[in-house]
Design a protein that fits this description.
Blueprint: H1 2-23, H2 33-54, H3 63-69, E1 76-78, E2 83-85, H4 97-105, E3 111-120, E4 126-132, E5 142-151, H5 152-155, H6 158-165, E6 176-188
Antiparallel strand pairs: 1-2, 3-4, 3-6, 5-6
InterPro entries: DUF7288
Keywords: Membrane, Transmembrane, Transmembrane helix
Transmembrane segments: 6-26
């Protein structure tokens, strides 16, 4: 009788283990310790890239700020060798410090990336425009952001700047122009 009871208990335990393993699906995209580690690496890499680009010597603008000020309002895509505009006929290329950094760091490692600029419009609504778009990010994507403060002297001709970028002057009574939030999304392909 004890032997039969032991066999039945063992079968129940094996059945519970089989049920538990089958109920939990493990796929390559399941969040795991390895994916969490990769996400942490991407987060650190993105923060380092934006921090390096936002550094400036005394009296000079940062490379990230210059990229925002020189932006022509267009969206660009990585075509395998350069960043090309998506909305004009001659497919102009984008040459900026941000694209140089992404080309040297993210592209060789197979890291997909999107970059968006967001700012507060005249009506108080946050506007968001794509600077670089390379598709929809995966569920394991990370987002890093850095704020860039623009002044009236940085922008220069406000009419031309607004017509290109749609970024308005947030306060016309002071030298403050607007704050642009540079958001970079990174994910593994």
């Amino acid at each position: 009788m004890h032997t039969l009871e032991a066999v039945i208990a063992a079968m129940i335990m094996v059945g519970i283990i089989i049920f538990a393993v089958q109920a939990t699906s493990l796929t390559p995209l399941t969040s795991s310790t390895a994916n969490a580690h990769i996400e942490a690496q991407l987060q650190t890499m993105g923060q380092d890239m934006l921090s390096a680009l936002s550094y400036s010597s005394y009296g000079q603008d940062s490379q990230l700020k210059e990229d925002v000020m020189n932006w022509d309002g267009k969206e660009y895509v990585w075509n395998g060798s350069t960043y090309r505009s998506t909305n004009n006929q001659n497919k102009t290329t984008l040459n900026s410090s941000l694209t140089d950094t992404l080309t040297q760091i993210a592209v060789p490692r197979g890291i997909a990336h999107n970059v968006h600029f967001s700012w507060i419009a005249d009506n108080g609504i946050v506007m968001d425009n794509s600077y670089i778009y390379n598709g929809d990010p995966s569920d394991n994507a990370v987002m890093i952001s850095k704020k860039v403060v623009l002044s009236d002297t940085d922008v220069g001709n406000e009419t031309v700047f607004i017509s290109k970028t749609s970024i308005p002057d947030a306060d016309t009574s002071t030298g403050f122009y607007n704050i642009v939030n540079v958001k970079m999304t990174l994910w593994r392909m």
